[in-house]
What we know:
By secondary structure, the protein is an alpha+beta fold. It folds into two domains: about 10-30 and about 120-225, no CATH class; about 35-110, Sporulation related repeat (Alpha-Beta Plaits, 2-Layer Sandwich). The protein contains four helices and 15 strands. Strands 1, 2, 3, 4, 5, 13, 14 and 15 form an eight-stranded mixed beta sheet that branches. The protein starts with 7 loop residues before the first helix and ends in a 6-residue tail after the last strand.
Amino acid sequence: MNRAPVGLRALAVLALLASGVATANARPFATDAWSVQTVALTDVGRADATAADLRAAGLPAFVEATVRDGVTWHRVRIGCYGAEADARLIADLARAVGADAATVVPRDGTPAHVPCVAREIGFVAPDAWRQRADGVPSFVVEVDGVRGVLRYGDGGWQLLQAPAEGGVRDRTVAQAAFAQAGPPDAPHVVWLGGDRPTPACRGALLAQTEDAAIVRTGDTVAACRLRPPEALP
């Protein structure tokens, strides 16, 4: 692909535009993530039944045990999210399906079979931007008259200099892994790879790859990348 050089200022501007990308991609499933706490019960059978009801509603619930003052409590929690806003979405949905409580809490030791969602920012409202075509995960962005192409692929955002735009080969996925859900004023995206659609993150779906939904939330375009669960109990 032709990557003809551009001026130093152009490089600096476009580097600032993508400044949040390297950090987001470096630790996509970091330990400083979030989960949703519902109830904590001493009866493991009731805890398992509560988690099963939440999973039947499409929420990735699980049970984990903790000991406090000599008593074993079985906490029913939901999911693993790199962005607190996405965890708040799940808390809202849990309450909507009848959960007695749903509180966003720091994640601590989410089991491997529970899906994790990382939100990786592509860009925040530059001077001008447009999606290159409907359904493709690449965008033409412009800051102070300097144009570049940001696209999501191979597990991360890539920044291309403007002359490379003509060489970008846009593509869409053969089979949808994500779909739009929720009302128009509060949209969210669901993952279609499990037994039932699973809420993944807030935002309007712009495009998708095999493992990520490209969404717009307010003035931010980001990739919600999902690590699928190995198997739900």
